[in-house]
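During the second half of the funding period, the structural biology subgroup turned its attention to how the target accommodates small molecules. The most pressing case was nicotinamide-adenine-dinucleotide, which had performed well in the primary screen but for which no bound structure existed. We therefore specified the complex as follows and requested a full 3D prediction, including the ligand pose.
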Amino acid sequence: MKKVLMTGVSGFIGSNLLDFLIKNTNWHITGYDNLSTGNKENISEHLNNKRFTFCEADAFTISTLRDYDVVFHLAALPRIQPSFELISEHITANVLLAAHLLEVMIREQHYPKLIYSGSSAVYGTPEKIPTPESEKIDCLSPYAFQKYEVERYLELIATRYPIDYVTLRYFNPYGPRSFNEKNAFNAYSSVVGIFLNKAKKGEPMLVTGDGSQQRDFIHVEDIASANYQAAIHPQKLNTFFNIGQGATLSVLDLAKKIGGPYNFIPKREGEAEITFADNSKARTILNWEPKGNLSEYLKHELQK
Ligand SMILES: NC(=O)c1ccc[n+]([C@@H]2O[C@H](COP(=O)([O-])OP(=O)(O)OC[C@H]3O[C@@H](n4cnc5c(N)ncnc54)[C@H](O)[C@@H]3O)[C@@H](O)[C@H]2O)c1
């Protein structure tokens, strides 16, 4: 039985990773969340589970990692547009918090396997389609840059200390709980969740630009299974992986697939024209395979 720590456990991806670990392992999970964008309801079904301890606290208060075999670091302020304005707040959440966890490891000389939630935003608008991990880095937003900065810190710190880490560069996650009505930043959450929310209310979906921008949509359970596969990998990998479906759909086609009215709103700066993962590295090394099906998910959600 592993003892694992998860930061950002009440968020969209964290709560789905918690579901996955409770269902598929016998591990004990300690989850931290300060509820800045997360929601306690996301994890309510596990609050009485003996295998789960919830700490409603800022992850900066974590002072020891001695007890853990694995750390899943998900806590962040993961929104592109707000990162242009609330700069220091985003640096604190997206960079300094990871630095804090590394400092605790170095101080204690205890190095649990660290699975870091990275982002395909680091590629900007890529030249190679589908995009392999060797693609050049081109950060179009402070958020993308912050996600990349942590990747570089991991690489640099690993030259001096025996840290054991994996970065997972998620493409465009969708799935249960991606849209949180109470989250102040919900206008910038997954477009799948936003469109479904609008369509269910009979309101027009708001397509940015001309909607030709393409996205590699990946089901959140596949993100959870990638975290799991990385955590159980027997070797020290110290590398990064693309976690995407390996397929792409335009935002306009997504609106059409969902059905219902849509309007166009101005394009947003800092967002990629296309995301499309070459996921062969994760398939080969992590023995991971995405199983989600976007069409089925949409059908299921619209029938609810
Ligand atoms: N959702 C996406 O589109 C996407 C894409 C690529 C990468 N990611 C990465 O995946 C991770 C999870 O994203 P998400 O979509 O679940 O976001 P989310 O906002 O739903 O979850 C993040 C969680 O972290 C918590 N948090 C933030 N700062 C904290 C702190 N200092 N201490 C404790 N908790 C804190 C928030 O309350 C929230 O519950 C992030 O690292 C994000 O950068 C997300």
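Two results from this model are relevant to the next phase. Helices lie at 12-24, 87-108, 142-157, 191-201, 220-232, 251-258, 280-285, 294-303. Residues 7-8, 10-14, 32-38, 58-60, 74-76, 78, 93, 97, 117, 119, 147, 170, 173, 190 surround nicotinamide-adenine-dinucleotide (CB under 6 Å).
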